[in-house]
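Before we proceed, please read the two lines closing this message. Tell me what the token row says about the fold.
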Amino acid sequence: MIRIENLKKAFGKVTVLDGIDLSIEPGEVVSILGSSGSGKSTLIRCINGLERIDAGRITVDDFDVSNPKELAEARKRSGTVFQLFNLYPHLSALRNVTLAPVEVLKRNAAEAEKEGRALLESVGLGDRADAYPAQLSGGQRQRVGICRALAMKPRYLLLDEVTSALDPEMTAEVLEILADLTGRGTTMIFVTHEVAFARSISDRIVFLDQGRLLVDLPCETFFAEDGGMANARVAQFLSKMRKD
């Protein structure tokens, strides 16, 4: 379980996360919605230890992210896919996928390569294993990024606006891969502006507003008139997203 308790984070005088309480059970798909600046991406970065928290506590399977001695173990349990791919440009797609399993988890190189090729094949990139990031489309690079995260065999997959830098066709490619992963029972925390997709795959919807957790509801309840839509801020956000 990922457990977040009274999480607070500020950048200078700007409070970005203000008393967040949230738990993610294994097997759940939880989408985090909210307008730009609501703290969604910062929350993901706090979970994987890329941002130091100011107060509160985050544990990943009981490993405290704020404890330097436990952070490495917490990170082994969660894989992160970023919005801008963050692939190593001098490494092939396959090497981007296999580097961490070999260097961090000390897996056998031949075994890691076999698993890496299988992962790339599963997302339609079996024939692009030796291509470098510059030779791949944006959608292909994001699929490599997903494979790289999955290669660490994480219990939790953290996805931070993974389609925001993609055109509609490439977005559809990546969303199809993510939908397939949810069908396999992959635990996901999905920060997104793709409201319709979030509605189709999520068990729960979390809505952040100005750094506060405003709503945390089962997906069907969130989109119901007497559920999340009964909250004026949520209704305003969803109305604007439909118009956009």
